[in-house]
Specification:
7 helices; alpha+beta; about 45% helix; 4-stranded antiparallel sheet; single chain
Length: about 170
């Protein structure tokens, strides 16, 4: 479903918005009255995410769709993320943080009424970071292609993104 998320997010970078860099995408809807507390929890956890090399890009939905927050966690690849070195770095950073992953997830779960987790491919984090730092507004679109039509939908989105970016 979200395979086109990064392409739409980075429309201004149309020539470089494709890639095979893996991201974990987390969509969450806050429980009523819990959005600010949920955002605070993720903000407090950012130093740990940074220590792990996986600081997420966080976006707030402005129109009240299915989700309130979208977090895009850089992973690189499944092999890289689950390597012994990466797992050790996460364990050490978590131990230093004073809050276990289970405790953090429990605190988040108290403030979330719905969540969906997906994996998407896109450009490397440097390209995404550049788009985030250069622009204050992001248009995120999610598409579901008909069976066997993923390639056509992706090509249609590429053409649309190129048009929006002023590229022929």
């Amino acid at each position: 479903m979200l395979c086109l998320l990064l392409a739409s997010l980075l429309a201004v970078h149309a020539p470089s918005n494709e890639g095979d860099y893996l991201y974990r995408t987390l969509l969450v809807r806050a429980a009523p009255g819990e959005l600010l507390e949920l955002i605070d929890l993720y903000q407090q956890r950012m130093p740990l995410f940074e220590a792990n090399g996986e600081r997420p890009f966080m976006m707030r939905h402005s129109q009240g769709d299915q989700w309130d927050l979208l977090l895009l966690f850089p992973m690189g690849s499944f092999a890289e993320y689950h390597s012994i070195e990466s797992a050790s770095r996460r364990e050490e950073a978590t131990a230093r943080s004073g809050m276990s992953t289970a405790d953090f997830q429990a605190r988040v779960a108290e403030r979330v009424s719905w969540r969906e987790e997906l994996f998407v491919l896109g450009p490397p984090p440097q390209v995404v970071d550049s788009a985030f730092s250069e622009h204050a507004y992001y248009h995120v679109e999610m598409f579901i292609a008909l069976p066997g039509k993923q390639g056509e939908l992706l090509e249609e989105r590429r053409m649309e993104n190129a048009y929006l970016a002023g590229i022929d």
